[in-house]
Each structure stands twice: as C-alpha cells, then as structure tokens.
Write a structure and sequence with these properties.
Order of helices and strands of chain A: HHHEHHEEH
Number of helices of chain A: 6
Oligomer: homodimer
Largest interface: A-B, 39 and 39 residues
Number of strands of chain A: 3
Strand content of chain A: 5-15%
Largest sheet of chain A: 3 strands, antiparallel
Radius of gyration of chain A: 15 Å
Shape of chain A: elongated
Distance between the termini of chain A: 28 Å
Chain lengths: 110, 110
DNA sequence: GAGGAACATCGACGGATGTCAATGTGTTCC
DNA sequence: GGAACACATTGACATCCGTCGATGTTCCTC
C-alpha cells in the first residue's frame, strides 16, 4: 500500500483521478471516517509537544484499550500518525506532511 | 445529520474535537473513503461547467448503474455534491464550500 | 396515454469493520 | 529470573458496506 500520498496524487480537480491511485487515497480518507479516530487525531494535533502517550488516549475517547489500540493501528497504516516506543510506553504523533497531503488533494483545480 | 461542516467544526488542531461534533465530520470523510466515490468526485471537479450528467458517470468508474447511483447518494447525503434534475437526466455538481470545509478541518493549529 | 429512456430504490449476498474479553509480547525493576 | 506494567494481537460477534439484478418512479415523446 502506497503511503506517500503527496507523491501519489495531484489535487482531485486537476485531472481525472486514475483508478490505480484511488485506493491508497481512499484508505487514508477512510481512516478519518470514524468518530473515534477523528478524536484521536485531534488529541494528537492539539497536544503540547506534538505527541501523546497511548495511555493518555484511552480515557478521553471512552473506548476499551484494545479498541483504541486498533484505531491507532488504522491511523498508523494510513500513514497519518507515527508511533515511538519509549520504555514501556508508546508515544503517538501526527504525521503533518501526510495530513497536509490530504488537504492538498481536496484543493480545486488551479 | 448536520451538514454544514464549516459551522460545525473548527480545525482539528485548534481544540479537542467534542464527541458530539465528530460523527458528522466522520461521515463526510467516510464518504471520501471509497475509490469509486473519489473518482466520481474527481470527475465532477474536473468537469467543464462544473457539472456532469449521471449518465456520463457510469462508464468511467466501471460499475453498474445502481452501484453508481448508490455512491452518488452517499456523496449527496454527505453534502459533498448536489443533484439537479433537468428533463429525464440528473446533473451532479461538487459543493465547493463543503469540500473546502473538510480541507479546513485538516488544518494545523494556528 | 402508451412506450421508452434515465435514474432511484429494493432485496440479497459476501466481505469488511467496530467492539470487547482474553491472551500475547516486550520492557522495567526488584 | 520473576513480577508488574503498557501496549498489541487474537477470536468472536453484530453491524455496516459495496455490489448487482430486478423492479419502481419520473419524465419526455409520439
């Protein structure tokens, strides 16, 4: 699965989206298509220092620890967040360039 | 279902996304989370005149007419496209302000 | 108004997804 | 090495989603 969306896809409005480029893009948007994942992303984007321990992501979204772990994996596989192990904890951070790439894709034709 | 996303949600990075605002946003992103719908949106965004007859949307995406109609309905219910009947045909067009609202939501904190 | 064209809806099917309890894996500290 | 903690993975379940053939509905034309 292609993860570098900026290299993959020009803005939707500039040219017809080739069929082979659509799936990775769709996967990235689908990752945002769940309320829990949107809230997780928001928590990461608003965090001071830009990163949050996984342990601090469970309670705010009101789901079980395995469920939150699952959603974080989806965001990771979509390339929207990164995970870094530090001791027994794992710290998550937004991948700003990937989020920016998604924004760009929604831009109208120039 | 709230459809005016611009009035609903500030950028994700500016403040923690309230739980009650997440579902409509997630629904809009989920509408983009399918390759067929992304291609449909791309076809509408690149169309001269900004609108396309439904009959011209079936063949390019390579799906059956009912399937394309279903996807167009999803995009419509997400507020991303509008439909206008003209005779026996229905013309679809992008709702630019809604797409722009989605772009804004992905903006980092100021 | 009868026939046909364009699009929507319905019903059904298989596959994907969100959720949780239980369990596994890796790390730290004694 | 063993206990304890943090997180990931697995298995199971219900629900949702994409797809298509068949059928409805709306509108135009003759």
């Amino acid at each position: 699965m292609l993860n570098d969306l900026a290299a993959c896809c020009a803005p939707l409005g500039t040219a017809a989206l080739p069929a082979e480029n659509a799936p990775p893009l769709a996967k990235a948007f689908a990752a945002l298509g769940d309320p829990v994942r949107l809230r997780l992303l928001s928590l990461l984007m608003t965090a001071e220092g830009g990163q949050v321990c996984a342990c601090d992501l469970v309670e705010p979204v009101g789901k079980s620890q395995p469920t939150v772990s699952h959603h974080l994996k989806v965001l990771r596989e979509a390339g929207l967040v990164t995970a870094t192990r530090r001791g027994t904890n794992v710290w998550y951070a937004v991948a700003p360039e990937q989020v920016a790439a998604l924004r760009e894709v929604l831009a109208p034709a120039t």
